[in-house]
Each structure stands twice: as structure tokens, then as C-alpha cells.
């Protein structure tokens, strides 16, 4: 709206309608916009804009006075306002440049080159002629010569601003447009000033009227808040945009030498000095460009070899350091590698967000710096993984290991709370001639995982048996891939029995692997490998589809009733897979099995560590109608809060508690507590691993109605299950 009013006022001004009123209206509006803009648009700081508003007030006063006082020989009165206005404009632009951090050496040198070129031309073409006019007061001659200097300084600041941002926002463009219009207006006055005149026509003030319009619109545009923010300009030191501005300035002294042909000594000195200064600035610019390239190269190399969050060496840099140490056999002691992983880091990220996790990582990195000696190399090679490398004896290494573990444990404040985490660490020494950086890191990583499996918060020294275990794991993974492709995996079924009737209410589908050469391979061997290698995704899909297909076949053949359900184990990784719920729904639809007849078994770790994605998947599955059961309940992070938070329908009491029933009072109390808690939450309870009639009787007395275990037979294939449990008239098992 301000710009529209400015355009209308400009049209009236050109038409000669109320010119003084038009000029005063737009000028006062621009001053008000610059002063009030920061408050209206709520941006900080607003000092530069308010300074620009003050400059506008002085320049407006001078512009209004000029046509009124010049005919009476009082031009000095107008200049008394205009000159301070230019000074304040320079201050405001300098403030903008400082706020944008535009005062870098490239922008300064480029601005100085353009400034010197412009100053040389302005001085030779306008300042000297204005000062040489006879019969004019000395003060006015000096002021006339001062304007080209102001313009040269403004050129410097405008160039610095233009070279300081990659975002050419509307407010920025309007501000630059204002400066260009001021240059045009000054040029017009400089031309008549060479003829000894101070004012000739209202047309000369038209550029200033437009400049007020541009300035006010710039102050009122929402992007004005961005003018005090640094937006780096990603250009080459000698980019085409810079050269387009710099080359004319460089050529100015030489063009003036030919075009004007300086005759007097001052003129020759001005042209010669301007040319010499520009040459020196060009040399300085070239030196700066070389230095900038060297600094950029050093910065890129640092960024490529160091962790951005902690400033520690990254994996690439660590590998180089390790290789250098291994190549120096004369060093004192063996090369030791300490590989540590933070236990519970994911919990911090999930509870307080990634910024809290970043603070924790920085804190641990600083603690390691403070704790370890100067000759130790500390690196961060992953999200919550650190590696320490140093030479020393075995005794020194083991003492160092304990120091590292101890320094991690003190509480760390993250967000609103203090957290205590531990570090699981693996240690390896370079003892073989063929040890290299990657093999040492791999072995230390292996030892670290052995520590996590043993209880966390400790450290383990790598030995050859671990390497053999890794090799065996790789062999299992390779064979498992083949097994999945060649249909070596199959399902067995174990009944879930109702103690009152002795009849099966459901069955659990159990995965088995029959290797063609090695024979049966237990789930405790291949399931962890499948989890780590992500083969569990494909295996889990196979188990789900085959189990549901078998349930549909039993239902169609009358082997089981309409309320019989199939219990299927689900991996935590499956729950994080996009489309898992859709796959379950499609499988049920394909085999025409009601969702209520399928129970998906999850581990307690899903509730504790699963995150938002897993929680969302569980909610979607319950909305589908599928039951959710917590397997091996009581062995991990059992909590009433977790059960209430997740859409669970039943819990399975782990066999470790069932095995002690009849002989262990504590196990009986644990089972009683689980039954009471489940009843309060409306959850069904299944006891697994029941092997004796005594265990069965105790469970029945404690209120458990559903059981499974060897008491009713081992898991069998689908045909044997149908033969054993399919008869609706079968007598109850006693």
C-alpha cells in the first residue's frame, strides 16, 4: 500500500500537482516506516532502520528547504540538513553490514576497489570542477566536493551488502533500489553543480522522491527482518557477479586518462593515485583469494576428518592414526583399541529429544578428553560410539579401561533431568603382524557386543575365540539366507491348553530350521543372527503367512473351532517396517481368517525401546482386531506403566518362573503378582514351559487358566497336531 501511494504521489509530482505536498507526504511516510517498521513487524534489532529513518528526516528537510532558500542565497541552510542526512545513511548501511557479518575481507577489498574507482571518477568529474567555480563561498565549494565522497563511501557499503547475501529478498532489493536512486539524484545535482547552480528544477528531486518510496516499502516489507541476518553467499572469490562490478572500477582511472586527459597537477595526481591504489588492492585481493582457498581447503579437510558435534577425530581420521601407529614398531608398548558404546543413549533421545542426546554426546566427549592422557587418541565414529587408541602395556591398558568406564557413569544433565548412563566397552591389542586398522576396530566392536550380552557397563578383552564366533555367525547368516530361499524353514505347533477343560484354546507357531548337512539348528542360534542381519523381516513374513494359512486350513477342515487362535512371534524390527500392519491385514483377508483369531507375541523390549513407530504399529494392529501378547513376561523391564501405555491383551509368564513352582516360594509369589496385576488390567495370562502336573496344579490354584509346555507334548507339525488335538470329542487331559 505504501508503494502504491508512492507511485500515485510520483505521478502527481510529475504532473506538477502539489509537488511540495507530494514530496513531504512520501518523505514523512518513509521516515515513519523506518522508525515504526521494527515494532510493527516485530524484528530485532531495529537500530539500523531507525538510523535510516533519522537520515530520511534530515534529507527530507534539506530537500524541502532547497527550492525555498536557494533563490534567496541561503543554500547553506539546506546543506546543513542534507549533509548530516548522508552521514546517517552511511551509518545505517554500515550497521546493516555489521549485523549481516558482511565485513569480511573479500567484501571489504572488493568494496574498496569499487569505492576507489568511483571516488577517482567522482572527484575528477565533479568535485574538482565544483571547487574551481569562481565567486562562490568556500564552504559551499567544499560541501559540493563532499557529496562525491559520500557517494563513494555509499558505493563501498552497498557493494559489501550485495556481496554478503545469497538471498535477494524483496526488502533487500528495494533498499538497493533506494541507493541507486540516490546516486542518480546526486549525479543530476553534480552536473548542475559543475555549472555553479544549486537548484534548477523540481524534476531533479524526482529520484529522491522515488528513493523515499523504495526505502519506506523496504522497511515495511516482512523480509526486512532478514536484512540484519547473515546469509552466506556461495560464490567463487572471482565470480562473474563480482567481476561485473569490479572491472568497471578497475578500468575507471585508465578510461579517465584517455577520455578526460588530465591537464593539471591535481588531476594527474588523483588519476595516478586512484590507479595505484586499485592495483595494490587487486594484489591484496589475489593474495586474499589464495589465502581463502588455503583456509577453505584446511577447513574441508578438518570437516572430512573430524566429528562435527564433538570436534573429535572421525572414523576416517582414526583409521589413518591407527595405521601410522601400526607402522611404527619401535613405539613403546602395544597398540590398544578401546571401543565403547553408550548404554541407554536411545532412551535419552526418545525421552528428551535429539538436542538432549547431542548434549550428552558432547559431555561424554569432553569427559574422555579430561580423563585420558595427551598421547591417547579419542574419536567418535558413530551415533553413540567412541574409540580410544593408545600405546601401552597390558597393565596400563586395563587400568585405562576402568578409567574410561568410570568417567562415563557420573550423572549428566540433559533437559529437565539428570541421567546416569553406562558404557559397554571392547578392548583389543595389536598382537599379529597382519593386524590393520579395520581388523582391530572390528575385533574391538565384537568384544564390545560381548560385553553388552554379558550385562553392560563393563569391558571385555577380545580373544581369538570371539573371532571364531564371528566367523561362525557369518556362516550361519550365509546358510540362513540359503535356507530362506530353499524352503528349509518350517513351522511346528504347540497347543495352548485350557486347564479346566483340558482342550486347546490356541496354538503357538514355532519356527524350526533343518539344515541339510548339520541337521536341526536351534532358534537360539539363528534368530539373533536373523535379527542382526535383518533377515528376520523376510523370515517373519514367511512365519506369519504360513501360520495364518495353516489356521485357515484347520478351520476349513473342522480341526479347530471358531474361537481357536494362532499365536505368532513378531520381531521388533518387523514392527518398524513400513506396511507391516497392511501386510497382516492382507494375509488375514487372503485366507479369510478373523483378526480375533490371531495373537501376535512381542518381547518386553518393544515396549521399552520400540519408540513411536513401534507404538503406532501396535495401535494399528489392535485397531485391526489382532490380539497383542507380551512374551517371556517378567524377565526384562516388566512394568505396570508399560502395560498400561501399550495396547496389550495378554501376558505370557516366562518358563523361568514356572519351573520353580512347587519348590520356590518366591516364584509362586511372582506368578501370583503377575496374575493379580493382569486381572486388574483386564489381561489374559498364559504360562509357558509347564512340564509337570505339580506345576500345572499350582498354576491352576493361582488362577492361571491357559498353559502350554511339554506336559501336553512337544511342538509338532500340522498333521500331527490335527491328529492329536483335532477331535472335538477328545476327552480332557487329566
Short account of what is shown:
The protein is an alpha/beta fold. Helices cover 60% and strands 13% of the residues.
Number of domains: 4
Helical/strand content category: alpha/beta
Spatial arrangement of strands, main beta sheet: 8-9-11-12-13-14-15-16
Proper CATH architecture of the largest domain: Alpha-Beta Barrel
Protein name: Diguanylate cyclase (GGDEF)-like protein
Domain EAL: 473-729
Organism: Catenuloplanes atrovinosus
InterPro entries: Biofilm_reg_signaling, EAL_dom, EAL_sf, GGDEF_dom, Nucleotide_cyclase, Rev_trsase/Diguanyl_cyclase
Summarize the SSE layout with pairings:
Layout: H1 2-14, H2 19-41, H3 47-69, H4 75-99, H5 105-131, H6 138-162, H7 170-193, H8 206-220, H9 240-259, H10 265-305, H11 315-326, E1 334-343, H12 345-352, H13 354-371, E2 377-380, E3 385-392, H14 394-408, E4 412-414, E5 417-419, E6 422-429, H15 437-454, E7 459-461, H16 464-485, E8 489-498, E9 504-515, E10 519-521, H17 523-533, H18 535-557, E11 565-569, H19 572-575, H20 580-591, E12 598-602, H21 604-609, H22 611-624, E13 627-633, H23 640-645, E14 650-653, H24 655-658, H25 665-681, E15 684-688, H26 693-702, E16 706-708, H27 718-725
Parallel strand pairs: 6-7, 9-11, 11-12, 12-13, 13-14, 14-15, 15-16
Antiparallel strand pairs: 1-3, 1-6, 2-3, 4-5, 8-9, 8-16, 9-10
Helix pairs in contact: 1-2, 1-8, 2-3, 2-8, 3-4, 4-6, 5-6, 5-9, 5-10, 6-7, 7-8, 9-10, 12-13, 13-14, 16-17, 17-18, 18-20, 20-22
Amino acid at each position: 500500500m505504501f508503494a502504491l501511494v508512492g507511485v500515485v504521489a510520483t505521478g502527481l509530482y510529475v504532473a506538477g500537482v502539489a509537488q511540495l505536498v507530494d514530496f513531504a507526504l512520501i518523505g514523512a511516510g518513509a521516515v515513519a516506516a523506518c522508525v515504526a517498521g521494527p515494532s510493527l513487524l516485530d524484528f530485532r534489532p531495529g537500530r539500523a532502520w531507525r538510523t535510516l529513518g533519522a537520515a530520511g528526516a534530515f534529507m527530507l528537510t534539506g530537500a524541502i528547504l532547497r527550492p525555498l532558500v536557494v533563490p534567496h542565497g541561503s543554500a547553506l541552510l539546506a546543506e546543513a540538513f542534507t549533509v548530516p542526512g548522508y552521514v546517517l545513511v552511511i551509518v545505517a548501511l554500515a550497521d546493516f553490514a555489521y549485523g549481516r557479518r558482511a565485513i569480511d575481507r573479500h567484501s571489504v577489498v572488493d568494496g574498496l576497489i569499487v569505492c576507489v574507482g568511483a571516488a577517482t571518477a567522482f572527484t575528477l568529474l565533479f568535485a574538482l570542477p565544483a571547487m574551481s567555480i569562481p565567486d562562490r563561498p568556500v564552504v559551499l565549494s567544499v560541501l559540493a566536493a563532499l557529496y562525491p565522497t559520500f557517494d563513494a563511501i555509499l558505493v563501498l557499503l552497498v557493494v559489501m551488502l550485495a556481496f554478503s547475501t545469497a538471498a535477494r529478498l524483496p526488502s533487500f532489493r528495494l533498499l538497493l533500489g533506494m541507493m541507486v536512486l540516490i546516486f542518480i539524484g546526486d549525479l543530476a545535482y553534480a552536473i548542475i553543480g559543475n555549472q555553479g547552480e544549486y537548484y534548477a528544477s523540481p524534476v531533479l528531486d524526482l529520484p529522491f522522491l522515488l528513493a523515499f518510496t523504495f526505502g519506506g516499502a523496504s522497511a515495511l516489507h516482512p523480509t526486512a527482518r532478514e536484512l540484519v541476518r547473515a546469509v552466506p553467499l556461495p560464490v567463487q572469490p572471482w565470480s562473474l557477479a563480482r567481476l561485473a562490478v569490479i572491472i568497471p572500477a578497475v578500468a575507471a582511472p585508465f578510461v579517465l586518462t584517455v577520455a578526460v586527459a588530465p591537464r593539471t597537477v591535481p588531476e594527474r595526481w588523483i588519476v595516478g593515485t586512484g590507479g595505484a591504489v586499485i592495483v595494490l588492492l587487486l594484489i591484496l585481493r589475489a593474495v586474499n583469494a589464495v589465502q581463502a582457498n588455503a583456509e577453505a581447503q584446511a577447513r574441508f579437510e578438518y570437516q572430512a576428518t573430524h566429528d562435527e558435534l564433538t570436534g573429535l577425530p572421525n572414523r576416517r581420521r582414526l583409521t589413518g592414526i591407527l595405521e601410522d601407529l601400526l607402522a611404527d614398531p619401535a613405539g613403546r608398548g602395544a597398540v590398544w583399541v578401546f571401543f565403547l558404546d553408550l548404554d541407554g543413549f536411545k532412551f535419552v533421545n526418545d525421552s528428551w529429544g535429539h538436542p538432549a542426546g547431542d548434549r550428552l554426546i558432547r559431555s561424554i566427549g569432553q569427559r574422555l578428553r579430561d580423563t585420558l592422557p595427551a598421547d591417547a587418541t579419542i574419536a567418535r565414529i558413530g551415533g553413540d560410539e567412541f574409540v580410544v587408541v593408545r600405546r601401552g602395556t597390558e597393565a596400563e591398558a586395563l587400568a585405562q579401561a576402568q578409567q574410561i568406564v568410570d568417567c562415563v557413569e557420573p550423572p549428566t544433565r540433559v533437559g529437565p533431568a539428570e541421567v546416569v548412563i553406562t558404557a559397554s566397552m571392547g578392548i583389543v591389542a595389536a598382537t599379529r603382524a597382519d593386524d590393520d586398522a579395520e581388523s582391530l576396530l572390528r575385533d574391538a566392536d565384537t568384544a564390545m557386543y560381548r560385553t553388552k550380552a554379558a550385562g553392560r557397563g563393563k569391558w571385555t578383552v577380545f580373544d581369538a575365540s570371539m573371532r571364531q564366533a564371528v566367523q561362525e555367525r557369518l556362516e550361519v547368516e550365509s546358510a540362513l539366507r540359503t535356507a530362506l530361499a530353499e524352503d528349509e524353514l518350517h513351522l511346528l505347533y504347540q497347543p495352548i491348553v485350557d486347564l479346566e477343560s483340558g482342550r486347546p484354546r490356541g496354538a503357538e507357531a514355532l519356527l524350526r530350521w533343518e539344515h541339510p548337512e548339520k541337521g536341526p539348528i536351534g532358534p537360539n542360534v539363528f534368530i539373533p543372527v536373523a535379527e542382526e542381519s535383518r533377515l528376520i523381516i523376510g523370515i517373519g513374513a514367511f512365519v506369519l503367512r504360513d501360520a495364518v494359512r495353516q489356521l485357515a486350513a484347520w478351520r476349513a477342515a473342522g480341526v479347530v473351532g471358531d474361537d481357536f487362535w494362532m499365536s505368532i512371534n513378531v520381531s521388533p524390527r518387523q514392527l518398524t517396517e513400513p506396511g507391516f500392519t497392511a501386510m497382516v491385514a492382507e494375509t488375514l483377508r487372503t485366507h479369510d481368517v478373523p483378526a480375533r483369531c490371531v495373537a501376535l507375541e512381542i518381547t518386553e523390549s518393544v515396549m521399552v525401546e520400540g519408540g513411536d513407530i513401534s507404538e503406532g504399529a501396535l495401535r494399528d494392529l489392535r485397531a485391526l482386531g489382532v490380539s497383542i501378547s507380551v512374551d517371556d513376561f517378567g524377565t526384562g523391564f516388566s512394568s505396570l506403566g508399560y502395560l498400561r501405555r501399550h495396547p496389550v491383551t495378554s501376558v505370557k509368564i516366562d518358563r523361568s518362573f514356572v519351573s520353580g513352582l512347587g519348590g520356590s516360594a518366591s516364584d509362586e509369589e511372582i506368578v501370583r503378582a503377575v496374575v493379580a496385576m493382569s486381572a486388574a488390567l483386564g489381561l489374559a495370562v498364559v504360562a509357558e514351559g509347564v512340564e509337570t502336573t505339580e506345576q500345572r496344579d499350582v498354576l491352576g490354584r493361582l488362577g492361571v487358566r491357559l498353559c502350554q509346555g511339554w506336559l501336553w507334548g512337544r511342538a509338532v507339525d500340522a498333521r500331527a497336531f490335527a491328529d492329536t488335538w483335532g477331535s472335538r470329542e477328545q476327552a480332557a487331559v487329566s
